[in-house]
């Protein structure tokens, strides 16, 4: 589906983090809707290297790009020589910056800031020099424990990941204020789920994780009082819609990307059971994260509607139903 009147054919588009969840969905969006677009897919593909927490340093996986016909480049956005070569070799019209250390449990603060903040500014300079629209991934993690509805300008990050994304937003505003004619949009994703997230491993959404639990014949395990733990869950197709609409904003800035409706983890389990035809009794376990856990997130979507013309089209029921065939495929191909 084409979400606005922009013709991306014959445009040169850089997608960083293109072998990841959102980046790969963007790559295929352009391939399917604008076959003459010149899409450059840059990713630091996984190598087996891990952080001190044991999680992979990169979730980029070649399987997310199987069928992609554009240009694929393996590289690290921290490599300034690589960025210089890209800036010389191509003349970008649009940059979709999705690459980041997105694991909220990573404790290497130095690498988090270098990768998420400093490398972003280098890419932003390229965008400005090329007169390219910059659309980048911010995060709902910037809000931390801020009360709902989470609103731009009322941030309280509780980890270095959320802090790094807030610093990206601050950099963006500084450039916007210096030159209001440039187009820079930061998108604060809330809880995204959908196809091509599987290779995020245990950081993938509870939707796919619960789905595979059920397909294994196991009852879903939830924290006690999960009907009171609410999140703003948004389907990947709506995230792609937001990225495309961010290419023609009414004004540059940082915008929430959510549904504006908080739903419970219990609701996810119940919808999955209905769609998969299972009827297991939910098992409840004590929540070990009380005191350090977000119990309610819900995006304030007013500015996003007014300045991006963005409004989520998928309710949680619709998104999970659309996702079910891929959850089943992954279970048969990757999990069994």
UniProtKB/TrEMBL annotation:
<feature type="domain" description="NAD-dependent epimerase/dehydratase">
    <location>
        <begin position="13"/>
        <end position="258"/>
    </location>
</feature>
<keyword id="KW-1133">Transmembrane helix</keyword>
<keyword id="KW-0119">Carbohydrate metabolism</keyword>
<dbReference type="GO" id="GO:0005975">
    <property type="term" value="P:carbohydrate metabolic process"/>
</dbReference>
<dbReference type="InterPro" id="IPR001509">
    <property type="entry name" value="Epimerase_deHydtase"/>
</dbReference>
<dbReference type="InterPro" id="IPR036291">
    <property type="entry name" value="NAD(P)-bd_dom_sf"/>
</dbReference>
<feature type="transmembrane region" description="Helical">
    <location>
        <begin position="12"/>
        <end position="30"/>
    </location>
</feature>
<dbReference type="InterPro" id="IPR011912">
    <property type="entry name" value="Heptose_epim"/>
</dbReference>
<keyword id="KW-0472">Membrane</keyword>
<keyword id="KW-0521">NADP</keyword>
<protein>
    <submittedName>
        <fullName>ADP-L-glycero-D-manno-heptose 6-epimerase</fullName>
    </submittedName>
</protein>
<dbReference type="Pfam" id="PF01370">
    <property type="entry name" value="Epimerase"/>
</dbReference>
<keyword id="KW-0413">Isomerase</keyword>
<dbReference type="GO" id="GO:0008712">
    <property type="term" value="F:ADP-glyceromanno-heptose 6-epimerase activity"/>
</dbReference>
<dbReference type="GO" id="GO:0050661">
    <property type="term" value="F:NADP binding"/>
</dbReference>
<keyword id="KW-0812">Transmembrane</keyword>
